[in-house]
Amino acid sequence: MTIRGKFTVNEVEERVKVPASTLRQWERRYGFPKPERSGAGYRLYSEHDLDNIRAMKRHIAEGIPASRAAELVKRLHPAPSGPRSLADMRAELVDALTSLDESRADALLSEAHTLHTVDAVMAELMQGVVTDIGKLWHEGRVNIATEHFASSYIQGRLRSLLNITANIKSAPAVVVACAPTEQHELGPLILAVTLRRAGYRVYYVGANTPVKDLRDMAKQLRAVGVLVSASTAESMQQLFLNRDYLAGIAPVLAFGGPAFNEQPDMAEVLGGTFLARSVDEAVDHFHELVQNKHDLVQDKGAMRA
Q1: Among 64, 104, 134, 257, who pairs with 96 as Cys (CB 3.0-4.6 Å)?
Q2: Tens of pLDDT along 60-114?
Q3: What is the rounded distance in angstroms from the CA atom of residue 279 to the CA atom of residue 227?
């Protein structure tokens, strides 16, 4: 099993000071490095890839031809054995958080990020752990304080991921928010991190966001998209009552979350589009929506010309 990639090509370029164009050239000519692809088609490089790229860079600096350097790297630095499964780590992280052992939880998440992609850690580990602990609370096996501690811990780690991911000033702006009265932030936080890693300039505004204020922010940023999450019927109803503020809020208006998973048609009623039931699908669908809007504007401009 290969090591899972977790760094985008831009992050690799920043860390090892090798241009992205050179990395792609090495990949085409020498079959090295061999990044994985995310669900959205982006190259993802592992820690092992970064070590090998640094070795390749050293060999070339010593005067070794690139083709020979690539052979040396592949022969002398083979990929290590595969990582521990996220399923195993998920059970351990549940135990750590329900035992209120924050140090052990920190160590487990650090290990997970070393061995697996950021996307996989968020979707399979972080989201899974919150779901598992929520079930334990419903079954009466942990109390509400423990469930809140675990949720707060995971959300804090997601916010840290969001903060350390570059927000490119020249990229299209996207606002990610929770509907009025909505307090569940896990899904929209994961989406915000994933979109920022995909190259969008993401503004995450969090829980219980008034729709009028959301409209004002989107206008100020000239946002290409506004994405709103709702998990309850009450939150969806609040969106419906404030639907006039949603009209024309951005070229792309999309909705997601458990409430819209159950009633996807409500997204159209509110003047937008149902995004998806999973983060991978959501990002792919958002790309399509943005591209379709861009193509429509281009077509109209051509017609006017």
Answers
A1: 104
A2: 998 999 888 888 888 876 665 556 788 888 999 999 999 999 998 999 999 898 8
A3: 12
